[in-house]
Design goal:
This protein is α+β, with helices and mostly antiparallel strands. 56% of the residues lie in helices and 18% in strands. It has helices at 3-16, 18-24, 26-56, 83-92, 128-132, 144-149, 158-164, 208-215, 236-250, 266-309, 311-319, 324-364, 376-402, 406-411, and strands at residues 60-65, 67-70, 73-77, 96-105, 109-111, 114-116, 120-124, 136-139, 153-156, 174-177, 180-188, 203-207, 225-230, 261-265. Helix 3 (26-56) runs antiparallel to helix 10, helix 3 packs antiparallel against helix 13 and helix 10 runs parallel beside helix 13. The radius of gyration is 33 Å and the shape is elongated.
Length: 413
Amino acid sequence: MEIFDLLVISLRQLAKNKLRSGLTVLGVVIGIAAVTTMVSIGQATGDLVRTQFQSLGANVLIVFPGRVQKAGVSEGKRASLTAADAAAVASDCPSVRAASPLVGTQGQVIGGNVNWKPNELLGVGPDYLAVRNWPMASGAFLSERDVLGATKNCVIGHTIAQKLFPGADPMGQQIRIRNIPFTITGVLAKKGANMVGQDQDDIILMPWTTVRKRLQGSNFANVDVILVSARSEDSSAKAEQEMSLLLNERHKISPGERSDFHVENTAEIAKVLNVITSTMTAMLSAIAAISLVVGGVGIMNIMLVSVTERTREIGLRMALGARPRDILWQFLVEAVVLSCVGGAIGIAMGISASYAITAGLNAMLPDAHWPFVVSVPAAIIALVFAGCVGVFFGFYPARRASRLDPIEALRYD
């Protein structure tokens, strides 16, 4: 008997008992739908984490000053980092692409008739955009001349431009920060919210020297942090090692002494988060797959009932020349068809559930931009697994049917 004939016979037989067939595959449908949904949401979470870390910049490492400790108690940060350290890291560390000092401050901003308090008022170096991988929408960024002269020039984010100059071109306009006039020389490209929902475009960038001297009234050359961009993700660990050696040497830290700084590698943090999300996805998928076993048991039970109900039919087929392997294949194909149909419905339900969950998350967290991801390999694997469930749980009923005695089967009432 050809496989096509077996499929036709199986579909006709299953169509005779639509309700029973539907209830039989319900466990498989739920299992495949749950696995598909878990994999989809897990991969979307991983993509979101990678996207958010990429928004920080190109393979960013952050150098923080160390903390002063007395009798084991932390008493604040040391003023241990300088702009000269950032320049040395950029020039003397082969694995580093760019570096920028950073000084933060706060204050009200006045533009036209509007008062606004930005999320971030930062003093930075000329390579800040290279580190953050942040293009300009218009105008020019701060130059080395701006830093050396502590000029009153600034670059604003997309949100600042909308709040202070709605419907107008902000280029060349003046704003006042703590009653000090600044001229806008550029507008940053829109970047969106970060992973905690903070608007990254609500930002004003100035020369770090201007922030220190004019806004903070300080003549010290120390900076709050140093942002560093490694040449590639693979070289970020090497860049961290090179920076640590260089800064220890510059700060005259002897071997074995505690460094007066520490480095946070965002690439390593991203890898850890990816491992966590992947592990959680695998665990949840494994738990969801348990319902596939339940569905398989349901298929076995129904197939055993079907063998009993169709005993006379089996005896008649054998009397007309059907071989035991034909009977075996017939019932096995029916079990596989049940599982595959349930798997296909489960995949469709899983994709729909993933879309609904993604839409709900984006509705609750509009700035998160949660991606909708459909894993084609996962869907294919789920469908193949559903077929394997049909083979595994359908083999015993099929084998039992094939071993029936034709004479006894024809006498069965």
